[in-house]
Amino acid sequence: MGRRGSISEEQVFEAADALVAQGKEVTPTALLSSLGSGSFTTIYKHLSAWESSRASAVTDRAAVIPEAVLSAFGAAWRAATAEAGKEVLAVKEQAAEDVAAARTQFQEALQTIERLETESEADATRLESLSAKVAELEKSLHQSENERAALKATCEQLQHQVKSQESDLARVHKESESERKRHQEELAEARKDKDAAIKESAELRGKANTLEAQNKDLLTRLSERGDK
């Protein structure tokens, strides 16, 4: 919402003359509608000048009294004029008071209109400022939404990586468990083979000792036979 455009006295005069030519009443509202812009205070000021220029251009035709009538009714005319003058003076005084009161009310109305127009312009300025702030907030919101979408995508990617790593860890753990069991089985088998080897070695050692004793006994007997 922008400020009201400034209008000149000439523009108001031309618009007022155009309304008169169209047979329309010349009012501030009609002038504002015809001009399309401007403030009521400026229009009122130029309208008053236009009305003053029209009033000065209009000349009252003087009433011409025929000579015959003037002679016959001179005295009556003067008496009526004097009486009418008193009434006219009273009317003029009352009219002057009414005009003064009307002008006071009119000036108060103009001041009110001017104040409202000033407040309207201030509101327009505040509205423009608020509109700019709203646009900035919308831009920030759009940027935040983009950042949130990017963070969401990153989070989803990290979650996928975590799941993948968990799967790999489970697979490695399973393989490690299988390898551990295999090693345990091999170790048990090796221990079994060791025990069997120890047993076999003991048996062989026993047999060797027996053979050695038998051999020694045989040698002794052979020696004894040789001595005989």
What do these coordinates show?
There is one protein chain. With about 230 residues, the chain is mainly alpha-helical. The protein has helices at about 10-20, 30-35, 40-55, 65-225. The longest helix is centred in the middle third of the chain and has 161 residues, at about 65-225. It starts with 8 loop residues before the first helix and ends with a helix.
* H/E element sequence: HHHH
Average pLDDT taken over every residue: 80
Strand runs, count: 0
Largest sheet: none
* Oligomeric category: single chain
- The dominant shape is rod-shaped
Counting helices, strands and paired strands, the structural category is: mainly alpha
Proportion of strand residues: under 5%
Q: How far apart lie the N and C ends?
A: 150 Å
Count the DSSP helices.
Answer: 4
The level of helicity is over 70%
**Computed Rg:** 63 Å
Which residues form runs of ≥5 with pLDDT under 50?
59-63
